[in-house]
Specification:
Blueprint (H helix, E strand, L loop, with lengths): L3 H7 L27 H17 L3 E7 L5 H11 L5 E5 L8 H13 L10 H14 L4 H12 L7 H14 L8 H10 L6 H9 L5 H7 L8 H15 L5 E5 L15 H13 L5 E8 H7 L5 H5 L3 E4 L3 E2 H18 L13 H7 L4 E2 L1 H20 L23 H22 L8 H14 L6 E2 L10 E5 L6 E6 L5 H16 L5 E5 L10 H10 L5 E3 L3 H18 L4 E2 L2 E2 L2 H11 L6 H5 L16 H14 L1 E3 H11 L5 H13 L3 E3 L10 E4 L4
Parallel strand pairs: 1-4, 1-5, 2-3, 3-4, 10-11, 11-12
Antiparallel strand pairs: 6-7, 8-9, 9-10, 13-14, 15-17, 16-17
Length: 688
């Protein structure tokens, strides 16, 4: 029998905050309360039902204050309507002149994910759904072919099957309004072949493929400009009229491209919306999720006729005390479930009276409830730690709760480092190779990191021409030299040649003293002109070629996700909403980006000393110290369990040894060294 108060002493705070991000990346979404924003969910479900019936595209604006739960709401929407639509998450676009390519890439990126409970990706489900509808229009011999395609994805290899497939789509869907119909239908067929599936996905999302891979797909060229990308998205719309609706979710718009005056370029997004409407695209639901403040501050710069096309407005309002209480209960349930006897209140050790005293209007944002829950849980935990010695928290007996404690910067840093590790692991799972990210996005991520590290005079679009967005320049730290950077991972050698020509031009114009090419991919053979130009520019000169590793890209992408959250007012650490400037300070003080070998190669951060060949256990040690810092104290079994979860290869004996080292360094201590291991508490040593 374990009493609830003993569990509270041993546990982590169940109300620890996190950064909101891509709802597709949440493997274990936070528990939800069905009644919260149920009206809005029902409203959107009704809109989807209308689209399913008449196939008319609709767009809506979802707005709410910071902390109202917009990103979580989109995750709920996807979870509840999983079988009724295909959901797409669109990352904030960094370049307005690349917006169609950006939307296409993220559309395909989301479609290759498998929805919960499904073995197939959304893309394959979309294709199978299309076949099911087409089947009704076919003759019996054609139906047998489609049956075979549906039932044996990956097993068709006859040469004639491809042409039969294309002919059927041409007859049933038609070619009117289909961009590059033969090639598009042919690549859809290649999705049924496991040997070509990945390559087909790369082409569909706009990767600039080399000639050999283009031949494998029997296509002439890549989708390498805005017109082609817009045409390809239109094709998805055309075919989707025979399947379920596609929901395009534009979230965290606080970090999209900006206009010269610093305001958000919402007009570029609404241009996309208007083009979809004017083109009479079918079966799309476009959701524009934005903070109320940003909507009011920037919508006036959008042409009224473009805004008028988003006829549906859905506000995410504050939730009631009953809903807030239920939200707190979902976080406390795992603790309550372990207790014997069970607590009498679902929000124990909190109570309804304290909620009423804090939220006098009877309403607040979900974040407000969770922040209060975190503060009061810690307050109670520390009182229980003293064996319930006075002073007893006044709010337990109906009094007012204490004011929120002033932000503790050391605790903020500890929470940040823990959250970084959590977000980094998500990025690792999502980005398994560098080319999954577009070069303009990689450059944007690099720019954000340089800004955090206080690099001066950063200017995007350093080279001219079509690939300007692949580049930037900055002033070398501590010097007056100008550094140029060009990042290209496109496998097409014609593209590589054009970028080398642009590099040659900036050197001839003496626009920088040093030019770096960042590229992990092939440089081509010596007979190619692009390779010859590369050799001329980057071999035995003061210019350099850096081959980035995947971990460097993970570093940049993780920081980028934090920037998105900070600008959206969704990054909360130790009860404080962190601004972009504070995030940049955290990055510098915690020196997290000092591990990035790309930044080391650019001489932005110093290289670390080499290891001794032994496994580096310092990250494990840092994790445990940060965990204790955020909790003040916690159970030894909990500390070991959490550490093994994050570092699953570490032996328990090694973890015990690291705890002993922390004790010897007077960073942590055992509260009662004589207690049984299962009852031990590990406490932070308070510096006097």
């Amino acid at each position: 029998m374990t009493k609830i108060d003993e569990l509270i002493k041993q546990s982590l705070n169940p109300f620890d905050n996190s950064a909101a991000g891509n709802f597709w990346e949440e493997q274990k979404p936070s528990p939800s309360v069905e009644s919260i924003h149920q009206k809005q969910l029902t409203q959107i479900k009704s809109v989807l039902e209308q689209i399913s019936q008449d196939h008319q595209t609709r767009s809506l604006i979802l707005y709410g204050d910071g902390g109202s739960g917009k990103t979580h709401f989109l995750g709920q929407l996807k979870e509840q309507l999983n079988n009724e639509a295909f959901f797409i998450y669109i990352e904030p676009f960094s370049q307005s002149d690349h917006i169609w390519r950006h939307v296409l890439r993220h559309t395909v990126d989301s479609l290759v994910n498998a929805p919960a409970g499904q073995a197939d990706s959304q893309l394959i489900l979309w294709l199978k759904s299309c076949f099911s509808t087409i089947q009704k229009q076919l003759k019996s011999d054609q139906q047998k072919f489609i049956d075979r395609i549906k039932g044996f994805f990956g097993k068709t290899d006859a040469e004639r099957d491809r042409q039969v497939f294309i002919d059927i789509l041409r007859k049933t869907i038609g070619t009117t309004g289909i961009y590059n119909a033969n090639e598009f239908f042919g690549v859809l067929y290649d999705l049924t072949n496991p040997d070509l599936y990945s390559l087909a996905c790369e082409w569909l999302k706009g990767d600039d493929l080399d000639e050999e891979n283009l031949k494998k797909l029997r296509v002439k060229q890549s989708i390498d400009d805005e017109d082609k990308a817009r045409g390809m998205l239109g094709n998805f719309s055309k075919i989707s009229a025979k399947t379920q609706p596609i929901v395009l979710c534009f979230d965290q718009l606080d970090n999209i491209a900006r206009l010269p005056d610093g305001s958000l370029d919402l007009q570029a997004l609404f241009n996309v919306n208007s083009t979809i409407y004017n083109g009479k695209w079918k079966n799309f639901l476009i959701i524009i999720s934005i903070r109320t403040e940003n909507w009011h501050n920037n919508s006036k710069r959008v042409h009224p006729s473009d805004i008028d096309r988003a006829t549906i407005r859905i506000p995410l309002k504050r939730i009631t005390l009953e809903e807030g209480e239920a939200l707190l209960a979902t976080r406390l349930y795992p603790l309550h479930n372990q207790a014997n006897p069970k607590p009498t209140s679902p929000i124990y050790p909190l109570n309804r009276q304290v909620l009423e005293k804090v939220f006098l209007s009877g309403k607040a944002t979900p974040r407000n409830f969770l922040t209060l829950g975190k503060q009061l849980f810690q307050d109670y935990k520390e009182w229980v730690f003293t064996d319930k010695q006075p002073p007893k928290p006044k709010w337990l007996e109906g009094g007012s709760p204490p004011p929120p404690p002033p932000p503790d910067w050391e605790k903020i840093k500890a929470e940040f480092e823990l959250l970084w590790q959590q977000e980094y692991q998500k990025v690792q799972v999502k980005n398994t190779k560098i080319t999954l990210l577009a070069a303009p996005d990689l450059i944007r991520m690099l720019q954000e990191a340089l800004e955090a590290l206080q690099v001066q005079e950063i200017k995007p679009k350093f080279i001219s021409g079509k690939y300007a967005s692949n580049s930037l320049s900055y002033q070398q730290p501590g010097k007056q030299e100008r550094i140029g950077v060009v990042w290209t991972e496109e496998s097409n050698m014609n593209t590589f040649f054009n970028i080398m020509k642009a590099c040659e031009k900036v050197i001839q114009q003496n626009l920088c003293q040093t030019l770096y090419l960042i590229r992990a991919g092939s440089l081509g053979t010596p007979r190619l002109v692009g390779n010859q130009l590369y050799t001329q520019i980057f071999t035995f000169t003061n210019h350099g070629h850096i081959k980035p590793n995947l971990s460097s890209v993970h570093d940049l992408a993780t920081y980028h996700s934090f920037v998105n959250s900070a600008l959206a007012n969704e990054l909360v650490l130790a009860g404080k909403t962190i601004t972009l400037q504070e995030l940049q300070t955290l990055i510098r003080e915690c020196k997290i980006l000092h591990n990035c070998t790309l930044l080391q190669a650019l001489m932005i951060v110093s290289k670390k000393g080499g290891g001794n060949g032994k496994p580096d256990l310092q990250p494990v040690k840092n994790f445990m110290l940060n965990l204790v810092k955020t909790q003040s104290f916690m159970g030894l079994p909990t500390l070991i369990k959490e550490t093994k979860t994050k570092f699953y290869l570490e032996k328990e004996s090694e973890i015990q040894q690291l705890i002993q080292e922390l004790c010897q360094e007077q960073m942590v201590e055992y509260f009662d060294p004589k207690a049984k291991p299962q009852d031990q508490l590990v406490c932070l040593v308070t510096k006097k």
